């Protein structure tokens, strides 16, 4: 995760952008989803404990995260649901709907193209690309897969700032280079490889095997616990 | 992330399981992948800087992570690639191949079923399940989609310990309950919802819209930087 060098001598982007810990930024979308659920149930206020449980974090961490936004709730009442939704959406920049380009329309690309969450939370997929001539021209939902050769023109015309890479690993760096050259400044990478990008471009990586390996660690630890010799119990 | 209550009075699982920070556990698979790439290139040793660059982290963090495993490298030489691979695989429990059940065989389920990373890094998909009668019986690769009604019997017969949920959100909790009742102790959840599970069951969540929202924060911050008035430059 790198931040654009702005050349102005400013260390931060000003008071609208408190320098939030990356882990806090990562939890804000969880709070937002929980808050939207509460709002749908016509709940006007929520305690920190209630919101923490709905988001699956502990309440001390939640209070600390929200204090970074200047939100402290009201003693005995809790947080105003609508106000907190607005504050978080403001910080995350979700008032605009960002245009996303999706590259690599295999099974995963199809799954991502059909992912309802993209349309409802500040994003819309503006273009689908593939390098395979057999895929170019294919209809996916309401869209048509385009040739990756068109990426520069389309990114410019559709004002796309985010690229999602769902190609095989060997193609991912080349795709990233093209997206960045075309003007994309954030990349979500599903290919199992590390991308090299210039300063000012943010990359987030989702690697499904890595998620499983992290679970494997916990499984392994649990098996070891279960396998402790009986005589050790109570020591 | 919860750890099984072991009832033995042991606070940790013993010397084989140093109590690793969750963030360190999350980075070990990255190091492992980079090390495998180095081994394929016949590299016997690697500096902390070289490995850090290949894994996309900073080298001080890498050295600290590996020191938790008791690996400090050799001054002027670096880390032994094969030895470090073995140490990390040992800690992650990747010497065994764990059986995984995948539930929900839509686009995402198809993508996951075809994901090569699962087969090569300590995992194999042992069963596919869906609740839709139109999907049950469908061939996916070398496997056949089974009825979710069979989940208890299959989890037991195939010794499945990890469940991957790729269903719509409204079905995910019910599926999780069935997997846990059947004996699954780790869940990777792709459905956009928080799962409630008993102590001793680990859940990791992958939410694709949340990854995009985190990128949105960085995009938003970058736009604000770009929009700074010219007269402020140099202040």
From TrEMBL, chains A, B:
Pfam families assigned: CoA_binding, Put_DNA-bind_N
GO molecular function annotations of the record: DNA binding; DNA-binding transcription factor activity
Residues at which NAD(+) binds: 104-109
GO BP of this protein: negative regulation of DNA-templated transcription; response to redox state
Gene3D superfamilies hit by this protein: NAD(P)-binding Rossmann-like Domain, Winged helix-like DNA-binding domain superfamily/Winged helix DNA-binding domain
Residue ranges of the annotated DNA-binding region, renumbered to this chain: 30-69
PANTHER family linked to this entry: REDOX-SENSING TRANSCRIPTIONAL REPRESSOR REX (PTHR35786), REDOX-SENSING TRANSCRIPTIONAL REPRESSOR REX 1 (PTHR35786:SF1)
Entry function: Modulates transcription in response to changes in cellular NADH/NAD(+) redox state.
Name of this chain's protein: Redox-sensing transcriptional repressor Rex
Naturally occurring in which organism (per UniProt): Virgisporangium ochraceum
